[in-house]
Design a protein that fits this description.
Layout: E1 2-6, H1 11-22, E2 27-31, H2 39-44, E3 52-55, E4 59-62, H3 64-74, H4 89-123, H5 135-159, H6 169-183, H7 193-203, H8 209-212
Parallel strand pairs: 1-2
Antiparallel strand pairs: 1-3, 3-4
């Protein structure tokens, strides 16, 4: 069986888990605390970061977007060549743009702050970055997320899904990010009803079931987190 090295509240890792589930790929999950230096992980990915997907045949593939493209090429034929990645170069470019927007920009401006300040600092020892949360960082995340929700609503209003009529990697990237913030009860869903309706659609997919069952030590999910109707 293939293996995925991950952390349950890492949005890039969740993105890969959603793709694996959409493609019907069973994997063994190995949890890696972000603050721990692991020689085993470094041997697979010199950057020492997750996600890392270890294929039974091809070996380690590192990085969320790299793993996603690899899975599309090696597993996508099971459910249709154009599933999650459209056929035309222009449409693929738009999917890739939005994946970068969410996994990079949304993560940098919102989700990374929330997870670091509200979860990881509490779990990590002081010698590895643990300590009191930075209130200013949390305030910045709470302000920035409203802009991203409105952008999601804007895209959905015009396209049905984020990159077009059908679900793609872009939707899974955005949903993975928002699911981490929603675990902490930090998504102001009242900001945009269209974004909320879109997220309800995505989190109702079978691929989301395992993620909605996640629990992180010392941090219980928000009461509505696993509720498909909020």
């Amino acid at each position: 069986m293939s293996v995925l090295y991950h952390h349950p509240l890492s949005a890039p890792c969740r993105y890969v888990r959603l793709i694996l589930a959409e493609y019907g790929e069973a994997v063994e999950l190995v949890e890696m605390p972000p603050w721990v230096r692991s020689e085993d992980l470094l041997a697979l990915n010199p950057a020492g970061t997750v996600p890392v997907f270890v294929d039974e045949t091809d070996g380690p593939i590192a990085g969320a977007t790299v793993i996603a493209e690899y899975l599309a090429e090696t597993r996508g034929s099971r459910v249709g060549e154009s599933t999650l990645m459209p056929i035309t170069p222009a449409d693929r470019a738009e999917v890739r743009r939005l994946v970068s927007w969410f996994l990079d920009k949304l993560d940098d401006e919102v989700v990374g702050y929330l997870i670091t300040e509200k979860v990881l600092k509490r779990l990590a020892p002081a010698s590895n970055g643990g300590g009191s949360p930075d209130a200013a960082a949390i305030r910045a995340a709470r302000s920035n997320i409203r802009y991203h929700l409105r952008y999601i609503g804007y895209l959905v209003t015009r396209r049905n899904c984020l990159a077009g009529r059908e679900l793609t990697f872009a939707d899974l990237a955005a949903a993975a990010e928002l699911s981490c913030a929603d675990y902490l009860g930090e998504v102001p869903w009242e900001e945009d009803a269209t974004a909320k309706e879109w997220y309800a659609r995505v989190k109702s997919r079978p691929s989301f079931r395992e993620i909605l069952a996640d629990k992180v030590r010392g941090s219980l999910p928000a009461t509505h987190y696993a509720d498909l109707d909020f």
